[in-house]
Design a protein that fits this description.
Blueprint: H1 4-10, E1 16-17, H2 27-33, H3 43-60, E2 66-71, H4 74-83, E3 91-96, H5 99-110, E4 114-119, H6 128-137, E5 142-146, E6 148-149, E7 154-155, H7 158-166, E8 171-175, E9 194-196, E10 209-214, H8 216-223, H9 236-243, H10 256-272, H11 274-294, E11 310-314, H12 321-332, E12 334-335, E13 337-338, E14 347-351, H13 359-372
Parallel strand pairs: 1-12, 3-4, 3-5, 5-8, 8-9
Antiparallel strand pairs: 2-10, 6-7, 9-10, 11-14, 13-14
Helix pairs in contact: 2-10, 3-10, 6-7, 10-11, 11-13, 12-13
């Protein structure tokens, strides 16, 4: 006879995850999760840790020595990136055009930074010329922005902003939670000093790990802080000693099996080839958009700055957007996302991330939407 918990877990059915995350997970990653747990200081596990660091350097396209997965979701990566480099009173510029830029602002303000925010209409990108003028008139310790704004489907001009920041003393901090693995992210070429991501989007790993990388310049600034990092769990000055050196210093118990899964998911991305993965996301994004337009649906974001992996679709007048999502989930076992903030009720967010970005999945969601609408 099944126990109640077995009945509950056996009731979990496979759903096609086509929302803003998590994405579908490859069978090899599930297999990696099930491998026997080792101790967090086990010599063999340390070998796996070292390989994950190399893989992250390759995916981030960086030579940064510090490229590690933080224990926690992408939000832990965001907190890590701000809490280690902001001291009370530090001037910080944040470029905002969606929910996740607003979260950066919230975190920086909680740490006592003097935040200067440049806000743009949701659905439009950050304007490079305006940022250039701002940087000419002001000095900031950190300039922060989101690469792929998941709440709207906008790709922001990170490379162009990075060129502006290179000529200053500022640290350039970038959120790549949604973009990493699905479009170009070039840490060194773009002059990014602090970067964070998540596993559950284009890396197609379950949520729970946040890849982070920090430049040597930023590490030096970290070690020269006047005040102690206010968050113990995310304090890189201590965590570095667990991830580097011959003698690893215990900080906290790492999520062993999640690191196995990340290792496998990074292997899958690199085995496909970064440029091939980016091209696949772009190709099936175009197929999806074409199919949506044939159904009479329109995209929220202009083509020049649309994300390939997160597609914001305008809800037609007279359509109950929540009812459509409910029918997709109940009748077709497909999940798509709703709008956030001011976009709530106005758009659907259809994800084509990592393993989800396959032609059969595009066909399946288009067929279901055609029947429902």
């Amino acid at each position: 006879m099944q126990t109640s918990n077995e009945q509950l877990l056996n009731g979990v059915e496979e759903v096609l995850l086509m929302g803003p995350g998590p994405s579908m997970v490859h069978e090899s990653v599930y297999k990696a999760l099930s491998v026997s747990t080792l101790g967090h200081l086990d010599p063999y596990f340390i070998q796996i840790m070292d390989m994950v660091k190399v893989q992250l350097q390759q995916v981030f396209q960086t030579g940064n020595r510090l490229a590690i997965p933080m224990s926690g979701t992408g939000s832990a990566g965001m907190e890590t990136s701000f809490v280690n480099f902001i001291e009370p009173g530090d001037p910080v510029l944040i470029l905002i055009n969606g929910v996740f830029g607003m979260r950066q602002k919230d975190v920086a303000e909680r740490l006592g930074a003097r935040v200067d925010a440049m806000e743009y209409e949701w659905g439009t990108p950050v304007l490079v010329d305006e940022v250039a003028e701002k940087l000419q008139r002001n000095n900031y310790k950190i300039v922060a922005m989101v690469h792929a704004e998941t709440s709207t489907g906008v790709a922001n001009p990170v490379e162009a902003i990075g060129e502006l920041v290179k000529g200053t003393d500022s640290l350039f901090l970038v959120d790549t939670v949604t973009s990493l693995g699905g479009m170009e992210v070039a840490v060194d070429k773009w002059g990014i000093d602090i970067i964070y991501s998540g596993t559950q989007k284009c890396l197609s790993c379950p949520p729970g790990i946040a890849p982070v990388s920090v430049s040597e310049r930023a590490v030096e600034i970290l070690h020269n802080r006047e005040t102690k990092v206010p968050n113990w769990y995310l304090d890189l000055t201590m965590i570095i000693n667990y991830w580097e050196g011959e003698k690893r210093a215990y900080h906290h118990t790492a999520p062993i099996n999640m690191i196995y899964a990340l290792h496998q998911s990074l292997f899958n991305v690199l085995d496909e080839g970064l440029e091939n993965a980016w091209a696949r996301h772009q190709e099936y994004h175009k197929v999806l958009v074409s199919g949506l337009e044939e159904l009479g649906l329109t995209m929220f974001v202009d083509p020049d700055y649309r994300l390939p992996m997160l597609n914001a679709v305008v809800v037609p007048d007279g359509v109950d957007e929540a009812s459509v999502r409910s029918r997709l989930r109940k009748d077709y076992r497909i999940e798509i996302g709703a709008g956030l903030g001011p976009m709530a009720g106005k758009v659907w967010r259809i994800g084509l991330m990592g393993e989800t970005c396959r032609p059969e999945n595009v066909d399946r969601v288009l067929f279901a939407l055609k029947e429902i609408l």
